[in-house]
Design brief:
This protein folds into 3 domains: 55 residues, no CATH class; 106 residues, Beta-Lactamase, CATH 3.30.450; 73 residues, 2-Layer Sandwich (Beta-Lactamase). Helix content is 32%, strand content 20%. It is built from 8 helices and 8 strands. Helix 1 crosses helix 2, helix 1 packs across helix 3 and helix 7 packs antiparallel against helix 8. The longest helix is centred in the last third of the chain and has 15 residues. The chain is elongated and about 80 Å long. InterPro entries: GAF-like_dom_sf, PAS-like_dom_sf, PAS_2, Phyto_chromo_attachment. It comes from Hemiselmis andersenii (Cryptophyte alga). This is Phytochrome chromophore attachment site domain-containing protein.
Length: 240
């Protein structure tokens, strides 16, 4: 399996962001695995990088009985929109919109170890921007006589690029605002703008028909600041 992983990583890197088909790549390389000397060089070049096993996708180890995550790679936020520490002990199928099909695939894995390939759509926005992922599930025996479901979560469409920290926070705020109840929209909007920008004061300013202004909502970072909510200001306060 390790030589195959190294070859798959080479294949993914060579795709240069184009659509990459893991099953096809695996079939192409199945009969052309390198000998151990070639493999050592390939492995050292592509796999031995601090903090990661391969340059694409993420991984989860799941209980085939409870479907809870037992272990996972540290980059799950990039693909699943959920930090690794939050994914641990969570029910893996609930991370996906199509949770029922993911749960069924995990609980009905082939005891002989034959991989199952299914699509999966994360229920949260991911940093890589992908809406569809490929899940490769394999049942693996444990030393204690039990079984684990090993899940490779892989990209199935061209990467849109990892969002920067600020872009990710803005995207998160937009999702929060969209879910806000209508009667709390103003409060949530201002709170999210303040969270992203860090400004001391965020105001929602309404212009009336005669062009005078009114502060209809306000969020203050420090209680010592003077509040302007419900205050009216003449039209001349705003440069024409």
């Amino acid at each position: 399996q390790l030589p195959m992983d190294a070859l798959l990583n080479d294949s993914y890197v060579a795709s240069r962001g184009q659509v990459w088909d893991r099953e096809r790549a695996e079939e192409e390389h199945r009969h052309a695995l390198p000998d151990m000397v070639e493999y050592e060089a390939l492995y050292a070049r592509n796999i031995r990088r601090p903090g990661s096993i391969q340059g694409h996708g993420c991984f989860a180890l799941v209980s085939p009985l409870s479907c809870k995550v037992l272990a996972c790679s540290e980059n799950t936020m990039e693909y699943l929109g959920l930090e690794a520490n939050l994914l641990l002990s969570a029910e893996f199928p609930l991370v996906f919109i199509d949770s029922a099909s993911v749960r069924e695939a995990i609980t009905k894995l082939d005891p002989g170890g034959k991989p199952t390939h299914i699509p999966g759509s994360p229920s949260r926005p991911s940093r890589c921007g992908l809406t569809t992922l490929s899940l490769v599930l394999t049942l693996s025996p444990t030393s204690a006589g039990g079984q684990w479901a090993c899940v490779d979560i892989l990209p199935t469409e061209p990467s849109k690029g990892v969002l920067s920290g600020l872009e990710h926070e803005v995207d998160r705020s937009i999702q929060t605002i969209r879910r806000a109840p209508e009667d709390m929209m103003h409060e949530v909007l201002l709170a999210e703008v303040q969270r992203v920008t860090g400004f001391d004061r965020i105001m929602l300013y309404k212009f009336h028909d005669d062009q005078h202004g009114e502060v209809v909502e306000e969020v203050l970072k420090h209680p010592s600041l003077t509040a302007y909510k419900a205050h009216h200001f003449p039209a001349t306060d705003v440069p024409q």
